[in-house]
Amino acid sequence: MKRRQFLAASLATSALGLAGKAPAQPAAAREFYSIRRYNLVSGPQLALTENYFSGALIPALARMGMGPVAALKLDIGEQTPAYYLIVPGPSADALATLDLTLAEDKAFLDAAAPFWNATATAPAFQRVEASLLEAFAGWPKLTPPAAAATKGKRMFQLRTYESPSNGDHVRKVEMFHSGEFEIFLNAGFHPVFFGDTLIGARLPNLTYMLSFTDTAELEAKWLTFRNDPAWKKLSTSPRFAFDQIVTNINNLMLSPLDCSQV
């Protein structure tokens, strides 16, 4: 128990405190996010992994009070096929120790057996990559699009911004809290979440996700965003334009699996 408490405290204190402007809204506790990428091979692994999500993992997460869970298929990005799972949780500790907790859940283990106990001769996946994030102070909760409730048509853009230094990373997060949230909303975007990566590859970085009906809407919204005078003013502000504070953007296009709650 002491180890888990230490882990939670260590991860929480590593989150970057920001004093920038946030949208006017009631204060809320920030969520944490586990983003898992399941690297797969075309064939049986696809159905096995999706059945694991729908029949075992997402129900177990619901019993733990975690959700809504995004279960997504990578459509455009490096190395397909791949599935992404985005799990919101109440603490870094709960997400960091998630697999240990699941291993003690008999109902989960029974339902997960074909995936959980797959053998080396017929593996369920190639590898799983994971990162742990904390929600931005100005966007503390994951917000599914309205179409998620009816399983309506939707697609997602998952964007990761890498910065050349910790200082530049902090400044980019501050930029979101200094008006960029409002510019997204004024352009008609539906942001799903914004997260600061605590543990993961290619640090320092941040990740956020946007929802659209289709690619035509995506292109129209980004055109509106880029032409917004408020964005032009913010992006050329000496506070943020003195250096190249983002040096690489990883841009993925995803679609929801049938079991996705987002």
Short description:
The protein has 262 residues and is an alpha+beta fold.
User: What does the overall shape look like?
Assistant: globular
Structural Rg: 19 Å
The overall strand count is 8
Low-confidence stretches: 1-25
- Characterize the quaternary organization of these chains: single chain
Helix content: 25-40%
Number of domains: 1
SSE class: alpha+beta
CA-CA gap between termini = 33 Å
* Beta-strand residue fraction: 25-35%
Read across the widest sheet, the strand sequence of neighbours is 1-3-2-8-5-7-6-4
Task: Average the pLDDT over all residues and give the rounded result.
Answer: 91
CATH class wording: Alpha Beta
According to CATH, the fold-level topology is: Alpha-Beta Plaits
Polypeptide structure, described:
With 262 residues, this protein is of the alpha+beta class. It has helices at residues 2-14, 44-63, 92-96, 98-102, 106-116, 166-186, 215-227, 229-235, 238-241, and strands spanning 32-39, 70-76, 82-89, 127-135, 155-162, 190-199, 205-212, 248-256. The chain has one domain: 2-Layer Sandwich (Alpha-Beta Plaits), CATH 3.30.70.100. Helix 2 (44-63) packs antiparallel against helix 5. The chain starts with a helix and ends in a 6-residue tail after the last strand.
